[in-house]
């Protein structure tokens, strides 16, 4: 199994298992920045070189965390961050902004938060309904010309939007939720990525932790965990969606590996150009995730998974 790939038509060579850093600042209950920094350092030691953040994670604190953790190590990593989801000074949600002037201001703020001169991969986090994609991507293209961004990407967009954006400036990566219970990108997005030479980056590849079997009920969450408000984590949804975990658990036992490793290996087996960014704050989970590289799934294994998992997922993604 290939362990690395070139992001799109770029010069950025990344491991196919990166690290999503969102949970190191909020969303998934309590967090420990010192422990997160140790995990980030361990990730580099283990060969991970693709780190993903956004300006809205902790409304800036996640980028600042990466600045502290990666100081003196920037030459060893490829850093992706995002703009577009706007939050106030107290973390309140203020909508999505894709206006050209905002794009440029957001980039300057991220550069300051990260303490760097150039962002390797800059994503539009979400598309603003009141701004044409050509306007937003045009502003991103200006950032590339100015040397503030090396390559650009889009998150959670459809095939038509990708094509329109690509006519303005080459798109290096498309980031969308993708896992055994979130397979929407297979319908059209995979095809356009292959056609245009764009790398697909799968976020929440472990189903926000659910597909690992770690979540048995809502009682497993801390009171400030955002999943308590997610439609896939109601009592009914957890009960019904446990059928996914049952199939994964069976395959994992047959292979002598963990459920997380099966879930990640399944994604990596879809094609050689997919990169996944599972998030974790714990070193032992990081090491477990990277063990997916060593899991070989035969055509029979893949067929069994395909034919055994539920055809529908209970609850929308958001």
Automatic annotation (TrEMBL):
InterPro entries: AKR (IPR020471), Aldo-Keto_reductase (IPR050791), NAD(P)_OxRdtase_dom_sf (IPR036812), NADP_OxRdtase_dom (IPR023210). Transmembrane segments: none annotated. It is an enzyme of class 1 (oxidoreductase). GO terms for cellular component: cytoplasm. Keywords: Oxidoreductase. This is General stress protein 69. GO terms for molecular function: oxidoreductase activity. Residues 16-306 form the NADP-dependent oxidoreductase domain. Pfam families: Aldo_ket_red.
């Amino acid at each position: 199994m290939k362990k690395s790939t070139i992001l799109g038509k770029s010069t950025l060579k990344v491991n196919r298992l990166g690290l999503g850093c969102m949970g190191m600042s909020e969303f998934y209950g309590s967090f420990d920045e010192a422990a997160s920094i140790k995990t980030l350092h361990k990730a580099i030691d283990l060969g991970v070189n693709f780190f993903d953040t956004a300006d809205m994670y902790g409304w800036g604190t996640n980028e600042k965390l990466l600045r502290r953790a990666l100081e003196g190590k920037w030459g060893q990593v490829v850093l992706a961050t995002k703009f577009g989801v706007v939050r106030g000074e107290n973390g309140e949600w203020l909508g999505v902004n894709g206006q050209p002037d905002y794009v440029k201001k957001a980039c300057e703020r991220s550069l300051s938060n990260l303490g760097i001169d150039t962002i390797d991969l800059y994503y539009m986090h979400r598309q603003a309904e009141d701004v044409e994609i050509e306007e937003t991507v045009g502003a991103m293209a200006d950032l590339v010309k100015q040397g503030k961004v090396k390559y650009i990407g889009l998150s959670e967009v459809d095939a038509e939007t990708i094509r329109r954006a690509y006519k303005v400036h080459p798109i290096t990566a498309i980031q969308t939720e993708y896992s055994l219970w979130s397979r929407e990108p297979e319908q059209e997005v995979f095809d356009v990525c292959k056609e245009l030479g764009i790398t697909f980056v799968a976020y929440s590849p472990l189903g926000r932790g659910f597909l690992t079997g770690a979540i048995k009920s809502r009682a497993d969450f801390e009171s400030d965990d955002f999943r308590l408000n997610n439609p896939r984590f109601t009592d009914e949804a957890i009960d019904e969606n446990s059928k996914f975990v049952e199939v994964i658990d069976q395959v994992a036992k047959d292979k002598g590996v963990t459920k997380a490793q099966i879930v990640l290996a399944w994604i990596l087996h879809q094609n050689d150009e997919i990169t996944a960014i599972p998030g974790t704050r714990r070193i032992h989970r990081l090491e477990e995730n990277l063990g997916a590289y060593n899991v070989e799934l035969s055509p029979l294994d893949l067929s069994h998974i395909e034919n055994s998992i539920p055809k529908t997922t209970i609850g929308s993604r958001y």
